[in-house]
Amino acid sequence: MKEVLRFENISMHYHTKQGETVALQDVNFSVSEGEFVAIIGPSGCGKTTLLSLAAGLLTPTHGKVVTDGGTLGYMLQKDELFPWRTIEKNIFLPLEIKRSDTPENRTRALGLAEKYGLKQFLKNYPSALSGGMRQRAALIRTLAVDPDILLLDEPFSALDYQTRLAVCDDVYKIIRSEKKTALLITHDISEAISVADKIFVLSKRPAHVVAEHLIQFPETEPLKRRENKEFSRWFEVLWKELNA
Q1: Count of the separate structural domains present in the chain
Q2: Residue 241 lies in a domain
Q3: Per-residue model confidence as pLDDT tens digits over 178-209
């Protein structure tokens, strides 16, 4: 498969009045076109920093991030929908920011909203929607500019457990249906196993990749993967690596 994102010998140092903190050290991994890749690691190890580097929001101290020139979409931990804008206008926001707010692009964005069950909520404000529906709207907003790669920063962590399972399943299906490449960071081992084609495990800070796993299930949907007897075996493997 074609490689679309690569981290080459990435190190990231932060400088404060208290001194220097090394967040990442010699991180190497790649993401191929169409893959759903998950990164797990201990809390505070620098997972979000990796996404910021991929998005070009940060510059690494050493090494480089290489992309194939494709566009990126970033989905945050919270939906961050503007409460004073309707769902429709929230979805159009990236088009306005990128100065691509054309009738054609609006039609495409509305088509996504209709396809994935938001048509009847377009004139509502975010406060009228459940947490799960708001997160779905946030994903459609991210997809409105047709990014090649989706960067997912623990996008389900703000939801209660039952909603989280359902929305994870929902978002996964949308990403697969739209044939997008995805890079997810999460501290939830079960979540990573349920969605990923490949999982990279990070060490404690300064973080580096300690393991890489190809995850293969006959089931494709996250909720069905969780029912497979191999699921618990993978959980045990990853748990031991995280706590080594």
Answers
A1: 2
A2: no
A3: 999 999 999 899 999 999 999 999 999 899 99
> Is this structure's pTM higher than 0.90?
yes
The domain boundary residue, chosen from 114, 146, 178: 146
Tell me whether the omega of the peptide bond preceding residue 103 falls within 30 degrees of 0, making it cis. Answer: no
Q: Same domain, yes or no, for 139 and 152? A: no
Domain with 186, as residue range(s), is 1-70+148-223
117/110 Cα distance (integer angstroms):
11
Distance (Å, rounded) from C-alpha 24 to C-alpha 1?
27
Strand partners, 40: 186, 201
